[in-house]
Design a protein that fits this description.
318 residues, alpha+beta, Glutamine Phosphoribosylpyrophosphate, subunit 1, domain 1, eight-stranded mixed β-sheet, five-stranded mixed β-sheet, 8 helices, 28% helix, 28% strand, binds aspartic acid
Length: 318
């Protein structure tokens, strides 16, 4: 395969200083390749995106089409149609996208629309804004031709009714009850884009929003460096601006693996309840190198590269 070399000189400007300080010169030997990675065992979604990338389709289109498979899957109870409702019985969805130009779009607490990652893309491309919430996001979707449907399936309704019997509010995401899909796509032009979509914490308080639609927390891309996405307890990801942190650590010279480990360990070392919730990151740099790490064992992600789509087990802090 023909190799192209790009040299990126990374400069950082010290905030407390008027002097420009050169931190590090980072070199990426970029091999033209396509790769898509996505959180959890989202086999079909990642395959869809990977095949589109192989066909030469751009990373953002591939990522949005890939995650749509999980948004439309009623069996996935933490994304899209069939997602678990909040404690009042309403299914509210959060999503964001980011492209290689640094443009981003986000929707939060959206009801009655399934493909919220696509809706976030529309916010990015068709409005002067980055984020739309609740009814405003829904009305914008309807004006763009999105069908309104009830996202609460019979199965999710029954589970919610069972939960209501005790109404035990435990806002913790652990190994059994989370499943956000975050996806990163490196396309044939060596451009990276990503998408993140979720119904959030099951039986959350009405109005609760996690990390997934927050640019820098649930997803961050810097096309000179790479990208990262998060899954797990959003409150903990937001506190460390997790995905941005992973990308910044890669900018400082860490591999995607080292950056994910460092970002997870930062949460673990600062949290007294560290063994009670899950957070996981996946990351990819411009070379197409990938990494992943989680707090609790059991996290896996999908990796499509060289025409193969495989589930990869990751290491964990505990
Ligand atoms: N990160 C999502 C949230 O906090 C949930 C998840 O990944 O399962 O809303």
């Amino acid at each position: 395969m023909k190799r192209r070399n790009f040299i990126f000189d990374i400069f950082s400007i010290g905030l407390m200083s008027s002097l420009t300080t050169r931190l590090k010169a980072k070199t990426f030997n970029i091999t033209p390749m396509v790769r898509s990675i996505s959180t959890w065992k989202t086999t079909e979604a990642n395959l869809k995106a990977g095949v589109m990338l192989d066909q030469g389709i751009d990373g953002l289109t591939a990522a949005v089409a890939g995650v749509a498979i999980e948004e439309e899957n009623p069996k996935n109870t933490t994304v899209g149609f069939g997602g678990a409702p909040d404690r009042t019985g309403s299914v509210t969805l959060d999503a964001c996208v980011m492209n290689h130009l640094g443009d981003c779009g986000s929707v939060v607490a959206v009801e009655n629309i399934v493909n919220v990652a696509k809706l976030a893309r529309d916010v990015m491309e068709k409005t002067p804004h980055v984020m739309l919430a609740g009814k405003g996001a829904e009305e914008f979707g309807v004006s763009e031709g999105y069908e309104k449907i009830n996202l609460l399936t019979e199965a999710s309704k029954n589970e919610w009714k069972k939960w209501l019997e005790n109404e035990e509010y435990k806002p913790l995401i652990n190994i059994e009850n989370h499943d956000t899909i975050g996806m990163l796509c490196l396309d044939k032009d060596n451009n990276m884009s990503g998408a993140c979509t979720t119904s959030g914490l099951a039986y959350k308080m009405k109005g609760r929003v996690g990390d997934s639609p927050i640019i820098g927390s649930g997803l961050f891309i810097d096309n000179k460096i790479g990208g990262a996405v998060a899954t797990g307890l959003g409150e903990e990801v937001v506190k460390t601006v997790g995905s941005f942190l992973v990308v910044e650590l890669m900018r400082q010279g860490m591999s995607p693996q080292e950056a994910c480990e460092n970002a997870v360990n930062r949460i673990v070392s600062s949290n007294s309840q560290k063994n009670k919730f899950q957070v996981a990151y996946i990351a990819m740099n411009k070379n197409g190198e990938v990494g992943s790490f989680s707090i609790e064992p059991g996290f896996t992600y999908m990796d499509y590269v060289n025409g193969k789509n495989e589930e990869i087990k990751t290491g964990s802090a505990l």
